[in-house]
Design brief:
There is one protein chain. This protein is an alpha/beta fold. It is about 35% helix and about 20% strand. The chain has 14 helices and 11 strands. It has a 9-stranded mixed sheet with strand order 3-2-4-7-1-8-11-10-9, with helices on both faces. The radius of gyration is 20 Å and the shape is globular.
Length: about 400
């Protein structure tokens, strides 16, 4: 792609105040009823700081990504619980929370970047943890049948998030001619990556297309193994200035471009379920970075349902229009394929950790770019990455373009 670079922060690559990632931390996803929420957040913080070669005292700002399993525990975070847990009383300049569902991590990066580049923060620690897998299932199902679903029009019809996923999948299949087997193959590709990820919920459970299509029908055309499993988990990352990273002798990753498109609130008001806002968001991000899909080495795209990912892949220009499912089914994005996609296993195989599902994909992208993904799944080519997130009833499409510094 040949477009002029337009940097939204007016920062040249390598400039002293260019905001960069220097470390990530993660704990295993799954069901961990004996792992308290605050313990999980603290473990994530310690791991992210260790990866960034920092200690808690280096952090001046904590940016929190919400949980969905408990309003009370979320209130603790709003009232600065993690400042106290990390021993930063009277030292931290700010501790606050932002929320846009599955795209929160994308927006957290934008907020952290703005704070750092403007001098309002020096070292920002972003944290997220979730206990969905251990929470009361009835309460969680109720929450997923109410949040973001308009009470006046859609809630009375019984609409819930699996039904929203099914509507998008039905429309996508009708528009593209994709078959049930091709859609199921997306789940299989993700599982292959999860088998290489020690933190993945389904690391030890291989999957075939036949198993997916043979599982119980949940909401036509979605089978049980095409729906995300609620999981406990946690992830975090550290951002600082390029000057600070260079001074410390640290490898780093910068944001080369950022683009987004908020397309609807009510899913009934989305005019094109088979496209959503991905092309608009991608075009905006590519214009900022000066590079396009052909320049990226891999991508990490939100995948609560297969169609969410295939639609995004097409809008991002990673494959031809209408060919997303067939492209992934061909093996192109699986381990050993030409373009790795969701190298941690994604939400469908690493585990759906609520708002943190997108955060885990972002952290995996940073981890790969830093060359720290481990011997089993570290990519040979890891210079540039595309990160895609979406929140709520797929109300928005968010794109971050990341590149390794140095």
């Amino acid at each position: 792609m040949t477009t002029a670079t337009v940097n939204p922060l007016n920062i040249e690559p390598g400039a002293a105040n260019d905001p960069v990632f220097v470390g990530v931390g993660e704990i295993p996803s799954g069901r961990y009823p004996d792992r308290p929420f605050i313990q999980a957040l603290t473990q994530v913080a310690v791991r992210a700081l260790r990866d960034a070669a920092m200690k808690p005292a280096d952090i001046d700002t904590i940016l929190l990504i919400p949980n969905l399993h408990s309003a009370d525990q979320q209130a603790d975070l709003v009232f600065s619980r993690m400042v106290e847990e990390l021993g930063l009383n009277k030292q931290a300049k700010a501790s606050f929370m932002i929320h846009s569902g599955g795209s929160t991590s994308d927006n957290a990066v934008r907020v952290a970047s703005g704070l750092i580049s403007s001098g309002h923060a020096r070292n920002v620690l972003v944290l997220q943890a979730e206990c969905w897998g251990s929470a009361d299932l009835t309460e969680m199902v109720t929450m997923l049948s109410y949040n973001g679903i308009p009470a006046q029009w859609e809630r009375p019809s019984g609409l819930h998030f699996n039904a929203i996923g099914a509507l998008i999948t039905q429309r996508y299949m009708a528009e593209t001619g994709s078959t049930p087997a091709e859609m199921a193959a997306v789940c299989v590709s993700l599982r292959k990556w999860a088998q290489l990820n020690p933190n993945a919920m389904y690391r030890d459970k291989p999957l075939t297309v036949e198993q997916v299509l043979g599982s119980r029908m949940i909401t036509d055309p979605l089978h049980a193994m095409e729906c995300p499993m609620l999981a406990d988990g946690g992830v975090g990352f550290v951002m600082t200035t390029q000057e600070n990273a260079t001074r410390r002798g640290q490898d780093s990753v910068r944001v080369a471009g950022s683009g987004g498109c908020v397309s609807h609130y009510s899913i009934g008001q989305e005019t094109d379920l088979a496209a959503l806002g991905w092309k608009t968001a991608a075009d905006r991000a590519y214009a900022q970075s000066g590079w396009g899909p052909g320049d990226a080495d891999f991508a990490e795209i939100y995948d609560s349902y297969a169609a969410v990912t295939t639609i995004a892949a097409e809008g991002l220009g990673l494959c031809k229009p209408s060919e997303g499912a067939r492209w992934i089914a061909s093996g192109a994005t699986s381990p050993g394929g030409e373009f790795p996609l969701n190298t941690n296993g994604g939400l469908l195989s690493a585990g759906h950790t609520g708002v943190g599902g997108g955060t885990a994909l972002l952290a995996e992208g940073v981890r790969q770019l830093l060359g720290r993904a481990g011997s089993e799944r570290q990519l040979d080519k890891h210079r540039r990455a595309i990160i895609g997130g979406t929140g709520g009833s797929y109300m928005d499409s968010q794109v971050l373009l990341l590149e390794r510094v140095g």
